[in-house]
Amino acid sequence: KIAKSHGSQCGFCTPGIVMSMYTLLRNHPAPKMEEIEDAFQGNLCRCTGYRPILEGYRTFAKDGGCCGGKVNDFGCCMAGKENKVGLITSNLFNPSEFQPLDPTQEPIFPPELLTQNNKPQKQLCFKGERVMWFQPSTLRELVALKAQYPSAKLVVGNTEVGIEMRLKNMLYPVIIAPTWIPEMNSVQHTNEGISFGASCTLRRMEEVLQKAVAELPRYKSEVFQAVLEQLRWFAGPQIRNVAAVGGNIMTASPISDLNPVFMASGSKLTLESNGDRTIKMDETFFTSYRKTILKPQEILVSIEIPFSRKGEYFSAFKQASRREDDIAIVTCGLRVLFQEGTDRVKEIKLSYGGMAPTTVLAVKTCQELWKENLLQEACHRLAGEMNLSPSAPGGMVDFRRTLVLSFFFKFYLTVLQKLHSELSENNNLGDMVPSSYASATELFRKDPINNVQLFQEVPPGQSVEDTVGRPLVHLSAGKQASGEAVYCDDIPHYENELYLTLVTSTKAHAKIVSIDATEAQKVPGFVCFVSAEDVPGSNVTGIANDETVFAKDTATCVGHIIGGVLADTQEHSRRAARAVKITYEDLPPIVTIQEAIEKQSFFETDRTIVKGNIEKGFQEADHIVEGEMYLGGQEHFYLETHCTIAVPKGEDGEMELFVSTQNLTKTQEFVAKALGVPSNRIVVRVKRMGGGFGGKETRNTIVSTAVAVAAVKVGCPVRCMLDRDEDMLISGGRHPFLGQYKVGFKKNGRITSLDVTYYSNGGNSVDLSHGVMDRAVLHMDNTYNIPNLRGTGIVCKTNLSSNTAFRGFGGPQGMMIAECWMSDIALKCGLPAEEVRKLNLYNEGDLTHFDQKLEGFTVPRCLEECLRNSDYHSRRKLIDEFNKQNRWKKRGMAIIPTKFGISFTVPFLNQAGALVHVYTDGSVLLTHGGTEMGQGLHTKMIQVASRALAIPTSKIHISETSTNTVPNASPTAASVSSDINGMAVLNACQTILKRLEPMKSANPKGSWEDWVLAAYHNCVSLSATGFYRIPDVGYDFKTNTGTPFCYFTYGVACSEVEIDCLTGDHKNLRTDIVMDVGTSLNPAIDIGQIEGAFVQGIGLFTLEELRYSPEGNLYTRGPGMYKIPAFGDIPTEFYVSLLRDCPNRKAIYSSKAVGEPPLFLSASVFYAIKDAIVSAREESGLKGPFRLDSPATPERIRNACVDVFTKLPTQVPESLK
Description:
Blueprint: H1 14-27, H2 33-39, H3 51-57, E1 81-82, E2 87-89, H4 111-116, E3 124-127, E4 132-135, H5 139-148, E5 153-154, H6 161-167, E6 174-176, E7 187-189, E8 193-197, H7 202-215, H8 222-232, H9 237-240, H10 245-250, H11 259-265, E9 268-272, E10 276-280, E11 286-288, E12 291-292, E13 299-306, E14 312-320, E15 328-338, E16 345-353, E17 360-361, H12 372-385, H13 397-422, E18 450-456, H14 477-482, E19 498-504, E20 510-516, E21 526-530, E22 540-541, E23 547-548, E24 554-555, E25 561-567, H15 570-579, E26 581-586, H16 593-598, E27 607-611, H17 614-620, E28 623-631, E29 643-648, E30 655-659, H18 664-675, E31 682-686, H19 700-714, E32 718-721, H20 724-730, E33 737-745, E34 751-763, H21 769-778, E35 789-797, H22 811-829, H23 833-839, H24 859-869, H25 872-885, E36 889-902, E37 911-918, E38 924-928, H26 937-949, E39 956-957, E40 961-962, H27 977-1002, H28 1008-1017, E41 1023-1029, E42 1034-1036, E43 1041-1043, E44 1047-1060, E45 1066-1076, H29 1083-1102, E46 1133-1138, H30 1163-1179, H31 1194-1200, H32 1204-1207
Parallel strand pairs: 4-6, 5-6, 18-46, 19-32, 30-31, 34-35, 38-39, 45-46
Antiparallel strand pairs: 1-2, 2-18, 3-4, 7-8, 8-13, 9-10, 9-13, 11-12, 14-15, 15-16, 16-17, 19-25, 20-24, 20-26, 21-25, 22-23, 27-35, 28-33, 29-30, 29-32, 31-40, 33-34, 36-44, 37-38, 37-41, 42-43, 44-45
Helix pairs in contact: 7-8, 12-13, 13-31, 18-19, 21-22, 22-23, 26-27, 27-28
């Protein structure tokens, strides 16, 4: 189902998603849509945007049927709309083809495993090289082991210790697994609450508490409900299924989701050592960072969570960067007990995580009447008691302090509501909670997604075998879904293969004084250390020849490759690499754009475009606004990290490399240069990648060259696949940008002049930074006609890993800053933003600021269709009404256009080659210069060849991309791959067809196979190359002349969001996209690219944040700290429509490029958030332009919603209304 519903693109994540769905179905054969979405909380996908995955699995849901066009279902009533050429349809796939689920036909669970638990177990002991593992069967055995090994770690799910050992290089020589101890697995219902054994999984706790809440009176289950609310957002189901409640407590994390609840509720812990004792989790339990009052030999046996009492109220809150599967920024458990039948506080406990090195209890908070004076007094005391120093670990100090007050305010309102409903009117409780405040008490809920995707059907009469324009399934989707697709690291190991682990700099800028591998040599399996001394050719590498294969004298970033360790296994190689000692002499680092500006640290070439007379334009303006906007970088987070296998061939310096790369040519060239051999000795092969997004266009070469050098040194195959933390540290990402602008405009919003200076953080080498800046400056206008303009681009040289290509390649940064000053204009003039945007739009035939004429400019069409599809004006009125009625929840909406230029800005890259072999049985082997990374390029190329040769797609196969079949291929990048490779494929197919013409003339009624065999018998070549170059493109920044782009792809998106003004949370309610992709080669793939790019852009503009230390050390090195969008982050209503009747005469079969252009449309979410913040700020009397940097994280949203809680958290709020 996931394959046929187009839910697999690169496929690297697909098996995991399949198994999550299968697990759900084994346990709940008829799930609800909400259960399906929850099942994927622990899964990530970087390609699809999640919608097609959910859409395919909707067919399993008992509540997933067609709902009037809101789902993409077969026979949907949205299908069949007519236009003048063909039908508009939403039928991307046909659910009637799916076999119904029959749970009775599933394999039974192995009975021997079911009975295993009931058999008495014997204590186990396993001894490894460095670790002993014990598994006792009785509590007595466990106590004895802990007495013998007091520092031993107790492990149940290994969700914390495993991470520490793997990622933090910590070693625990003795590990004890208490999973067989009956007392630690039991659940006991007592008179005071429910007791859970410390080894009980969080999932089991969840099930027990859900049952208790359903059966108990509500007043008795307040604490249980709070625990369940926290568990709902605790990691993902995979973690909850194995992680133990005891582990969560004893890890003593200061940001634990559950410990504040346990502490505030007064949960009791039973401990065992020489005897047992029971203690209460109170303010004395956590003694320091990750430390408790337990003695080393003591064991946590169980925890008793108490029933709540009459007059007792309990709430728990958590704020994270991402709602699903994310660690808390601040978390809390809040409890109050009233004297029965009154509003007088008898007892109050407020426990917070994320505000100190431990979970803390606010012990000084007052006890007063539950009225506004208590609220003010509590806020005052909390602000003082939970104060953080400006340098507190974790940062976000103001945000965290404000969350403490915001959470208490939510709790206060929640309790006040309940008191009003439960106590009689005679108790004089004062005013009810204002209706505009009521939404502040609502817990986060997200409805199951609704969506429709519309596209134009093929013309009547098109052959059934002609798949161009049809939603053909990605041809590798089936293999990917079943786990049979082969990626680089899936290639079987060679018999004599060694593993390479890179040794990288821990300093951002330092002289390398010495390298000592003595300790590494002591690790079992160690073979040798590889460094600059071992490079047989040139150690100089990089796009601008400003990098090294291995750093020799100076390290210029944390993660700079200094050497590598070869060993017999991956584990031994990594252990040995950690043992290499490097001595440094520190040099001052430059980390940020601001530091680079201060120290004038720039790469030499600036980019400037001037149009008109900007000074005259500013003189004509009624208003001038100056400002700046910062856009953070972005990690590619392809699911498959960089991987290379280098295989020396043993003669003539030949080497074969299997690489996960978008750029075979540069990989071949750089490896040949490092090895000192001609390129014809190096063959680079790529079958598929698990995602790329630009991150494998050049940066894979730093891994591939190191692996190749190592393979030459030892004369045998060498493999290296980076861990996620290594990949994020070494490979760079999207360029952070700072835009400083000055814009002049009339009272009606018409722009008269614009001056923008862009600064990007290029990192420690040039790489593609100049090209990225070129595109940013070329897209500084977005879709707006500005008569007088100057754009200047400056690339900063810093001591970070070199930033590189990323989907959009500078375009999103340039356009984002354009929409920033467009937003300022609207706010300054007091005009609706959409009117200001429409007023300044280009028209057909206008010249851009680089003097390219706009032909086929469909943005006005896209805009009108998007306004109509989204019902924009009616919904705007509803949003305004919602905002009037809600003080602490606000909604916003924005409609954003895009214009994305298609071509490489480096002219010679706009070329491609193809090779077609036809075999005597009629089958066709097709090769072209592009690589498959999930974007469906191979599928589209087979569709192109199928139409050209007039044969079914089943007769055509693409095996791989390699340098020995198509030489000098351009990188698969810039969104042009289907354009240039498609035309090259067409060219090759036309050559074959021309050769077959005599055979067809001689046998007009013959089949394809007849003609091919006849050609072979007549000694006619059945192999042909194809070539194509985009004509007349190229731009000279020195003279500001030329045509940089072949054409433009256009689109418009409208998004609506809702923000929580107290926490900074937001949810994406609805997005409507209208995209001009010409005549689509494959609507399913194109819509998938639109949705995937859009969701990746949601990450860029609202979620993903790279954090560095002042010394240039990257903090966010993995999925634990760096959060990409998850299933729950996509719009609840997600509508995509391909603009009809807009063929593009400049590309293959009238199509358009689609990979990068849609990404910027997610700026509509950012500016919808900003629109909502405007409403929140107006409540505090603030109007006009304000700064909101990207991404719009909860921290930035909350801090921008200025109110009594943000102004001065350490002071008593004067008014709380």
